């Protein structure tokens, strides 16, 4: 049926008279709108639509800083045209993680003569290309690069070294033992070092950090204000960082105010590092501190270090007791209002007076946490994960009640056993599900409790009176939440074979399930959520509430929820995904996960999804469903699946995805591989660091680094 012509005309005239023309907005409003559009689209597409947009798209506020680090559609030609059109207007260029761009793309950066800040972390850059590029960037003051095998500092020209001598901030990721460009940067004020050197080469030869000894130049630290080093597992990384620290121990920079070393496992203290710390205690006042656990445990170091206006502390994995924390760090609450980020992950005794005769599962002393909350009232990031923080049944306030006073919190990481209601946990007898062993043996049939599937019905139960419900209600502006079992360990390895056995959850965590998950749906502004080892998940109904209420959710990581022999929350997860329109990253780790047609059909509703990672022992997948999903979700550029399928099935599916979609998605990264295959570590080493660090490997990310460590 077609309406009469006169009705169409009248309708058009009414739209013209009442409608809003975008071009009638003020320039200020249009510039604000355009700031949300990727720069490549602005310059190469939007500005060609009309004269007004042609002028606005080249405004300095839009071209001053160009961010390409998550523009997965950018390719070499787009970068070439972008640099040609606005290269001279760019002062800050971020290409971090653009692993898919060929190394020749870097040649076009030479057009950006006025660059002050440049981030090329994760990009392919040879010594010669780096030399040629830096020779033309005389105004550069901030640089981030990777140092790969084959890097040769002797190939850097005198003009390149002159540019480096003026650089004030350097971020260097090392994949081979080397000083990189550090010796050339004689004016450094901020040095960030990421050590990703493997102990063995691809050919199986053992590497040694002593390869650096032959280099003639050494770092210059006299102007250093910030020193940060993050080590991946491996003894070579420890050897190399010691060589960097040896220079620092000779003469401690007077202006040093942030000293941070993040090292997994055991990193023993040496005479040189002890001299460095003693010198720091005498000569500097710090604003940020992180040290390997062996350097703090059993020493009186914290008692002697002086702090100015500290904004970041990390005592991850240290045996620091609550008594020492109060006496030596908080110091009665003096000058701690400035602290915005605190990482106590793995500090099993940090909320207890003493650690000598205490068991890790003993109740906490709530007065220590209360002192911490009062003293550090402006905390925005707090990590208490990887420890048993059990509130007392009779003495003091509950942990959740105390944390609810931190109204400025933006990110929070908690162990599962810390959020349970003590009274409920004591009074309630163990349910059938609690008695089911968390193993992979014969499945046990149990009665499944029926849970209401909407928020209103659940609120009528005990949930509204729970301490965790109250905590979630008081932290309305929380953006990142992690609730992780204190004994949880991921099956996904870093430099070792996949973990085959998992530890059982804490007894106190046995009652944490669907109602606690539903409480999270009060966080309207939640952007990132991690839930791991919640044993009492029976239906996953709380996930639906989160999908409905948390419309800003971008990152979701779920691991080992409910029974280990069956994915009991699959139906609820599929219902949840239908509402997650902003979800970009999804990580699922669950034994026996079936990635079939129904799951991928539900996942296809996540129109913004970019990265997917599934880790599942004995898990299965349907190749046709995966291919259909990839065809429907055009934004997906990363698909990692580590399942129980055969190597042949995995390889065929991976090749099919690459062959079908690589041409239209230049950043596409696909890894499909058996989880328990002996060659998994070799496959992992080829995954781009951006994906490996941000999603593929499981870890707590709250307060992992100081805020705004790099731009």
UniProtKB/TrEMBL annotation:
PROSITE patterns xrefs: FBOX
Pfam families: F-box-like, LRR_FBXL18
GO cellular component: SCF ubiquitin ligase complex
Entry-linked SUPFAM superfamilies: F-box domain, RNI-like
Residue ranges constituting the F-box domain according to the UniProt record: 19-66
GO biological process, one term: SCF-dependent proteasomal ubiquitin-dependent protein catabolic process
Protein name as it appears in the record: F-box/LRR-repeat protein 18
Gene behind this protein: FBXL18
């Amino acid at each position: 049926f077609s309406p009469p012509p006169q009705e169409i005309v009248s309708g058009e005239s009414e739209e013209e008279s009442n409608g809003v023309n975008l071009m009638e907005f003020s320039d200020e409003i249009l510039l604000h709108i355009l700031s949300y559009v990727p720069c490549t689209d602005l310059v190469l597409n939007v500005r060609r639509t009309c004269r007004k947009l042609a002028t606005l798209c080249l405004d300095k506020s839009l071209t001053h800083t160009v961010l390409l680090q998550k523009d997965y559609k950018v390719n070499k030609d787009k970068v070439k045209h972008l640099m040609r059109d606005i290269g001279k207007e760019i002062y800050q260029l971020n290409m971090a993680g653009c692993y898919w761009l060929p190394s020749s793309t870097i040649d076009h950066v030479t057009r950006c003569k006025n660059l002050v800040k440049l981030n090329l972390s994760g990009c392919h850059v040879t010594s010669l290309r780096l030399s040629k590029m830096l020779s033309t960037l005389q105004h550069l003051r901030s640089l981030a690069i990777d140092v790969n095998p084959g890097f040769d500092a002797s190939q850097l020209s005198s003009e390149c070294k002159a540019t480096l001598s003026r650089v004030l901030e350097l971020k260097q990721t090392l994949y081979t033992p080397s000083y990189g460009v550090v010796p050339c940067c004689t004016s450094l004020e901020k040095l960030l070092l990421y050590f990703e050197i493997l102990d063995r080469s691809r050919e199986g030869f053992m590497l040694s950090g002593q390869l650096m000894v032959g280099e003639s130049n050494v770092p210059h630290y006299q102007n250093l204000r910030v020193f940060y080093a993050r080590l991946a597992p491996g003894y070579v990384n420890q050897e190399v960082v010691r060589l960097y620290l040896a220079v620092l121990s000779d003469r401690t920079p007077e202006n040093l105010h942030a000293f941070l070393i993040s090292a997994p496992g055991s990193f023993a203290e040496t005479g040189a590092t002890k001299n460095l710390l003693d010198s720091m205690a005498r000569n500097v006042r710090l604003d940020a501190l992180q040290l390997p656990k062996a350097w703090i445990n059993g020493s009186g170091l914290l008692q002697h270090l002086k702090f100015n206006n500290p904004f970041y502390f990390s005592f991850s994995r240290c045996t620091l007791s609550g008594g020492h924390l109060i006496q030596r760090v908080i110091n009665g609450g003096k000058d701690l209002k400035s602290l915005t980020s605190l990482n106590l992950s793995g500090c099993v005794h940090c909320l207890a007076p003493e650690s000598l005769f205490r068991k890790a599962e003993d109740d906490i002393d709530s007065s220590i946490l209360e002192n911490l909350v009062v003293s550090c009232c402006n905390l925005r990031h707090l990590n208490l994960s990887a420890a048993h923080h059990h509130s007392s049944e009779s003495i003091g306030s509950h942990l959740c009640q105390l944390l609810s006073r931190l109204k400025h919190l933006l990110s929070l990481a908690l162990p599962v056993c810390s959020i349970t209601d003590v009274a409920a946990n004591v009074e309630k007898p163990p349910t059938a599900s609690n008695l089911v062993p968390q193993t992979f043996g014969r499945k046990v049939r149990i009665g499944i409790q029926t849970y209401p599937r909407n928020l209103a019905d659940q609120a009528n139960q005990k949930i509204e009176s729970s301490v965790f419900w109250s905590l979630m209600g008081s932290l309305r502006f929380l953006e990142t939440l992690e609730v992780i079992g204190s004994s949880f360990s991921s099956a996904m390895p870093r430099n070792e074979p996949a973990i085959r056995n998992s530890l059982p959850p804490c007894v106190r965590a046995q009652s944490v399930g669907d109602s606690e998950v539903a409480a999270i749906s009060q966080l309207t502004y939640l952007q990132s959520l991690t839930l791991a080892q919640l044993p009492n998940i029976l239906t996953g109904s709380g996930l639906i509430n989160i999908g409905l209420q948390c419309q800003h959710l971008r990152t979701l990581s779920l691991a080992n929820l409910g029974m280990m022999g069956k994915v009991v929350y699959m139906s609820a997860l599929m219902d949840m995904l239908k509402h997650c329109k902003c979800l970009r990253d999804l990580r699922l780790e669950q034994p026996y996960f079936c990635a079939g047609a129904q799951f991928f059909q539900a996942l296809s509703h996540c129109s913004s999804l970019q990265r997917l990672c599934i880790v599942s022992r004995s898990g299965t997948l349907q190749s046709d469903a995966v291919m259909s999903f990839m065809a429907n979700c055009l934004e997906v550029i990363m698909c990692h699946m580590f399942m129980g399928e055969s190597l042949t099935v995995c390889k065929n599916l991976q090749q099919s995805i690459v062959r079908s979609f690589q041409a239209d998605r230049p950043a596409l990264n696909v890894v499909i591989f058996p989880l328990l295959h002996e060659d998994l570590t070799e496959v992992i080493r080829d995954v781009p660091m951006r994906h490996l660090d941000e999603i593929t490997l499981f870890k707590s990310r709250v307060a992992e680094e100081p805020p705004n460590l790099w731009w």
